[in-house]
Amino acid sequence: LFAGPVDFVKGVTAMANLPPADRLEVCFAGRSNVGKSSLINALTNRKNLARASNTPGRTQEINYFALGEEKYLVDLPGYGYAEAPKAVVEKWQRLLKQFLQGRQTLRRAFVLIDTRHGAKEVDEEIMKLLNKSAVTFQVVMTKADKVNAATRAANLAQVQETLKKHPAAYPEIVMTSSEEGLGIETLRAIIANMT
Ligand code: GDP
């Protein structure tokens, strides 16, 4: 569904180093260990494009990937990792704010939420920031294969309820499993259809 190859462009730690804002972008945000790397790898059909890692909070870079020549996929560092040094967390939060408030070509943020846990306080913090920054965001539930249908439905309902508080939220939630391929095609189509 992506028109061309997916390539790593660069990792960025300061606004000044962002690639030229010359194409539409979507970004992916989520708590550390939410399954973001696995999702990006599944979406792009690449085994190790985004490094799946069990070291939460390790990557503090904004990673840019080119989807053909038309779009950027932006991988934001995982948040909510309590053990990261305070100075690192603060630097990251500054960069995140600057990015969300200042990136004109950012079309949509995908906020990843673990289907096992539902929306947590840190997720709501990000939603508030997105709202404030007037960035439309869409929730993607991850690791759906890890829970039974009842838990899935309950936590989906919890997230839907949470979204009512955030006007910048896109109402449709995408349920995914990178493990089983659930929702991957849907998410690809959502991105592919953005113009
Ligand atoms: P990140 O820190 O958000 O990039 O998370 P990762 O992609 O590294 O995933 C964290 C852990 O969850 C890894 O052990 C993955 O194998 C596992 N994981 C990620 N996505 C899924 C999924 O859809 N289903 C299952 N069962 N496990 C997953």
UniProtKB/TrEMBL annotation:
One of its GO terms (molecular function) is GTP binding. Keywords: Cell cycle, Cell division, GTP-binding, Magnesium, Metal-binding, Nucleotide-binding, Septation. This is Probable GTP-binding protein EngB. The keyword Chaperone does not apply. Belongs to the TRAFAC class TrmE-Era-EngA-EngB-Septin-like GTPase superfamily. EngB GTPase family. Signal peptide: none annotated. Residues 22-195 form the EngB-type G domain. Its cofactor is Mg(2+). One of its GO terms (biological process) is division septum assembly. The keyword Magnesium applies. Necessary for normal cell division and for the maintenance of normal septation. It comes from the Bacteria. It holds the Pfam family MMR_HSR1. The lineage of its organism: Bacteria, Pseudomonadati, Pseudomonadota, Alphaproteobacteria, Rhodobacterales. It comes from Stagnihabitans tardus. InterPro entries: G_ENGB_dom (IPR030393), GTP-bd (IPR006073), GTP-bd_ribosome_bio_YsxC (IPR019987), P-loop_NTPase (IPR027417). GO terms for cellular component: cytosol.
